[in-house]
Amino acid sequence: MNEYKVTVIPGDGIGVDITREAIKVLEKVGEKYNTKFNFTTLKAGGCALDEFGVPLPQETLEECKKSDAVFLGAVGGPKWDVLPGNKRPEKALMGLRGGLGLYANLRPAKVYNILKSASPLKEAIIDKGIDLLVVRELTGGIYFGERGRGAEEDVNYAYDTEKYNVNEIKRIAHVAFKAAMKRKKKVTSVDKANILESSRLWRETVVEVAKEYPEVELNHLYVDNTAMQLVRDPSQFDVILTSNIFGDILSDEASMITGSIGMLPSASLRNDSFGMYEPIHGSAPDIAGKDLANPLAQILSAAMMLEYSFNMSEAARDIENAVEKVLEKGYRTGDIYTEGTTKVGTKKMGELVLEEL
Ligand code: NAD
């Protein structure tokens, strides 16, 4: 029997409701595949501020470091919005990303055939299919570069710096090409190489890395064009590889075109196996604890954990297929409900997925 140690951080708001359902799914899949998950549940975010006075207690971070993977719900809520910057729940996310060295953020955006009416795009565009993965560099670039303020001739100025070295670009490019090998074998590298020197190095380096993956088709797009293409014809994309700031913006755009944030998982990886897995949405304080949250993004995050951290692709497909079957049978949580379907709560949705497994 394989055994894995997973640190679970439910966090705040609906994070608590949806991680509960996802863990049941993991346990069931574990039985089938002769795998035991040893879960340790710890606090981060607002609940940690309440109990320990810090958003990310040292014990939580240390335990994560000793784990094979981290499984996170969401953090934050209005109760803590009045606190100063370093005492905000969201600081826990930055602390985990930095502390665990998670440099690659993977965000799939997929439109399930049965949910295509949720997309804001025209049916003719959706009918061509949307199933893409944004691979975003997470620990470099302008969000971490040199910044400052000053004054010239009594006029105030401020600056931030976009800086990447070849090694940073290479390692994120490898993540994208490896992911593409498991998908449709196409990588679109996004930059602004017509203007930015850092983008020109990005492009040169990606071209070099591509030589190690001759089966993968590589093309390059400028970020402004990519933003347009995502709404014009998202079916052209398989894996989008990009920098921290461009990825931040494009991954939100890509999730919006699917129309359902309650369905979208994500992974942040350090290497070929260690990662943190979480839904893309926040803690949804408006519906927390009311059995209203959609647990599917969290459950699909569990599938990503199986795929990337435990090399259990077949089990991951089982979860994805179970989710699809539940949707095909017409069950919906409130966020994806349409007339003629059956509305269910968080727990029932979790049970339905379990039944299909
Ligand atoms: P949100 O994603 O929490 O909610 C936006 C809207 O979508 C709300 O109406 C909410 O009810 C709905 N929603 C989100 N997830 C849902 C789900 N699974 N099922 C059904 N409906 C769902 O974003 P927000 O309202 O801007 O932020 C709320 C809090 O979450 C804030 O404190 C914010 O800072 C935090 N946040 C945390 C993360 C994270 O932990 N990674 C990400 C984004 C926001």
From TrEMBL:
It is found in: Cytoplasm. Mg(2+) binds at D224, D248, D252. Keywords: Amino-acid biosynthesis, Branched-chain amino acid biosynthesis, Cytoplasm, Leucine biosynthesis, Magnesium, Manganese, Metal-binding, NAD, Oxidoreductase. Belongs to the isocitrate and isopropylmalate dehydrogenases family. LeuB type 1 subfamily. Binds 1 Mg(2+) or Mn(2+) ion per subunit. The record marks Y143, K192 as: Important for catalysis. It catalyses: (2R,3S)-3-isopropylmalate + NAD(+) = 4-methyl-2-oxopentanoate + CO2 + NADH. NAD(+) binds at residues 77-90, 282-294. Homodimer. It comes from the Bacteria. Its cofactor is Mn(2+); Mg(2+). PANTHER family: 3-ISOPROPYLMALATE DEHYDROGENASE (PTHR42979). One of its GO terms (molecular function) is 3-isopropylmalate dehydrogenase activity. Residues 5-353 form the Isopropylmalate dehydrogenase-like domain. Catalyzes the oxidation of 3-carboxy-2-hydroxy-4-methylpentanoate (3-isopropylmalate) to 3-carboxy-4-methyl-2-oxopentanoate. The product decarboxylates to 4-methyl-2 oxopentanoate. Its main location: cytoplasm. The gene is leuB. Pathway: Amino-acid biosynthesis; L-leucine biosynthesis; L-leucine from 3-methyl-2-oxobutanoate: step 3/4. The keyword Cytoplasm applies. Transmembrane segments: none annotated. This is 3-isopropylmalate dehydrogenase. Substrate binds at R97, R107, R136, D224. Its EC number is 1.1.1.85. InterPro entries: IsoCit/isopropylmalate_DH_CS, IsoPropMal-DH-like_dom, Isopropylmalate_DH.
